[in-house]
Design brief:
Layout (H helix, E strand, L loop, with lengths): L51 H12 L8 H4 L2 H9 L2 H7 L12 H13 L13 H8 L17 H14 L3
């Protein structure tokens, strides 16, 4: 299809071109298309009862891999900080919902976002990691092979979680 991009269509008009690889029913005069797919679906994670304490231990074991990157003055407090982070209501809402992630019982993406925030932005703005390099941190998770969460180690958690972590660090860890 060749669209004339210089055409004067009037205000609010949009030109679009769609390429559809597979068409189940072709009806050139249709103004809308509704496809219904039927099959079995997995039960959402939120409907499954989660043993939070065992999941916390799994997360602690996971983040313990990043302990080697923590500044010396934070090393003895780092795992305690994570224990306190689990108690934050903002974190509790999202950390146990693994969503579509396979091979885990917790939200690895959210944990990666929190690691990013702790590593680069907490403790007065300079973070609690010596040198925050997402690739090095991702490599620490899977026996030296880059982890699938590598891209997520570049993003911060939601503003609510950031504010809650900042408040926690300020009040309890005197930074």
């Amino acid at each position: 299809m060749n669209i004339d991009k210089d055409a004067n269509l009037g205000a609010g008009s949009t030109l679009m071109e769609f390429h559809i690889g597979h068409v189940e029913n072709l009806n050139p005069n249709a103004t809308s298309v509704v496809n219904h797919y039927y099959g079995t679906r997995m039960k959402p994670q939120s409907d499954i009862t989660v043993n939070k304490e065992s999941v916390r231990q799994e997360i602690l074991k996971y983040v313990e891999n990043t302990l080697q990157f923590v500044k010396p003055k934070w090393r003895d407090k780092y795992m305690d900080l994570w224990g306190d982070i689990f108690l934050l209501p903002e974190v509790d809402l999202v950390i146990y919902d693994r969503g579509q992630q396979e091979g885990t019982r917790f939200n690895r993406k959210e944990v990666a976002h929190i690691i990013c925030y702790l590593g680069k932005h907490t403790a007065g703005g300079d973070g609690i990691f010596e040198n925050y390099v997402a690739t090095h941190i991702a490599n620490s998770f899977k026996d030296g092979k880059e982890s699938a969460v590598r891209p997520e180690l570049g993003f911060r958690p939601s503003k609510e979680i950031q504010n809650a972590i900042d408040q926690l660090v300020k009040e309890k860890y005197q930074v």
